[in-house]
Amino acid sequence: MEIYLPIAEMPVDVFLILGMGVAVGFISGMFGVGGGFLLTPLLIFVGIPPAVVVATQGPQIAASSMTGALAYWRRKAIDFKLGGVLLAGGLIGTLLGVLFFNQMRRIGQLETVITISYVVLLGGVGTLVSWESLRAVAMAHKGPVKRRRAGRHAWYEGLPLKWRFQRSGLYISVIPILFIAALIGFAGAVLGIGGGFILVPALIYIFRVPAQIVVGTSLFQILFTMLAATVLHASTNHSVDLFLALILMVGGVFGAQFGARTGAQIRSDYFRVLLGLLILSVAVRFATDVLTTPKEPFSATLTETVR
Amino acid sequence: MKSLRALVLLCLVASPMAHAETLVTSLSRENVLIQSNFAGERLSLFGVIDRGGDNRAPPGAYDAVVTVRGPRGAVTVRRKDRFGPMWLNLDERRYIAIPAFLEVLSNRALPLIAQAPLREELRLGLDAQVPQQIASRAANDPRFRDALQRLRKEQDLFRESASGVKFIAPNVFQAAIELPGKAPIGNYDIDVAVFVNGALVARGTSSFRVAKTAVEQTVATLAADHGVLFGIGMSILSLFIGWLASVIFRRD
Fold first, then answer.
1. In this structure, are residues A70 and A216 in contact, taking their beta carbons and an 8 Å threshold?
2. Cross-chain CB nearest to A240 (options B86, B150, B223)
């Protein structure tokens, strides 16, 4: 069944898009990430203009993180103060990201920027998560993991503007938190990703936020960042497609529910290895794209239309 | 000066009349409305060559060339090149007034219908329709123009068919215009040229419009003219769907 997308101005197969939404939602529910980093390349591959894809990710990720955040809220597993600081940083990053996105689109390097950012970002995070989790799996056989002693702090935690985050049991400077959040907001707006796959490891490894608080807080921050990205994309480049977003949302929220149930049955250290490898494989896919000789070196873009 | 121009104009207008033929065309639809299930559409153009009461047989069989052009716009063609280990868009040419949709239909191959100079003059064929002219200051490079045609053909937006026109009777023909699902919105013009023995004997034009229907148009207009409102609406919608899913799937 074909449906015509009013903003992308092309017909797509509803079941194909719905299927992608379900598949990505499944993975996102399983690993607690937004899944945008998988969906964006898939949709571009189907032939939907990259600008529409990136802008339409916003509402889709917002919907699935809303579902997730509500569940964590009921369990009181959201640190709203930490989330608020992350949000402030994220909004600054998103604003800069949308401006950068529109500028790159104008000079014709959007595709290159998206590809290279994917390779660097996914490659980096994928390697880190895989390495860390493989080591954890290896360590599990040897004995207890060495933990950092209380009272010892990294340099960035001692920067000025120290705040106390009671729910997470933290007393650290807000500057590094704002910085990380801005970076993720920026990446989110440019790449059409929620950034959960960066934020979750960052909160765990860099700021040592308790694991049970991390996912809920990250979902809370992603929800609001993506709502802002939706409004900003809609008001500056008018590329948010209502119908595409609707199909993706419906597929995504269903997939996420089944993914979450499956995820609960996998051992957590193997689960992180899987997530790391998944992220890495997407990075490799993009790297081959930009590093190998293209089959078609030319591309044609309509820059202005007279109607 | 003015009178001379008028004279030239008169000759131009009168020249088809020198031959006895006139062309009458009829299009199956003048408005193509895009609904949510739009996946392309086929239009038929009928043409009747009227010999103006001349009962003698024409000096040869008629040939017809139908050119359909969608809304025109500027197109930037970019080429990837090696940049260290990477392949990046490094070179580009900008072409102005390129039709977003272009279909050239004829009853047999264009070179058999008319000689190259005449085809160039009448702008018949894909080659003649895509101008050489580039907007940027960079040197002209035919590879970019070839790539533009090749890419648009792959997207089904440019098409040349030597069997797209069928003669139902010696002086009646039908052209099948195939609009793909991603046919751009806007006004389309159709140019019909009729030949006998390689000479132009009649010419006619027609047009149609591709537009979105109420719902699609409302969505698009809203997104374009009220971006902030549209964004806020989308946000509320995503919150609602997210909340709905959490209610449906709630287990505790």
1. no
2. B223
Residues B150 and B228 grouped into a single domain: no
The reply to whether B112 and B189 lie within a common domain is yes
Domain total of chain B: 2
Structure confidence by residue, pLDDT tens digits, A118-162: 888 888 888 887 887 788 778 766 655 444 445 556 666 667 777
d(CA B155, CA B159): 10
Interchain CB contact of B90 with A (< 8 Å):
no
The ipTM estimated for the assembled molecules is 0.74
Model confidence pLDDT, tens digit, residues A154-200? 666 667 777 777 777 777 788 888 888 898 888 877 776 767 778 87
A107 part of contact set with chain B, CB < 8 Å:
no
CATH number at residue B75: 2.60.40.1930
Interface touch B216/A233, C-beta < 8 Å: no
Contact B216 A257 (CB under 8 A): no
- In A, minimum Cα distance to B75 occurs at A302
The answer to whether the pTM exceeds 0.80 is no
Is residue B126 domain-shared with residue B234, that is, in the same domain? no
- Give A-chain residues touching B216 at CB under 8 angstroms: 4, 6
Boundary residue ending a domain (B196, B212, B228): B212
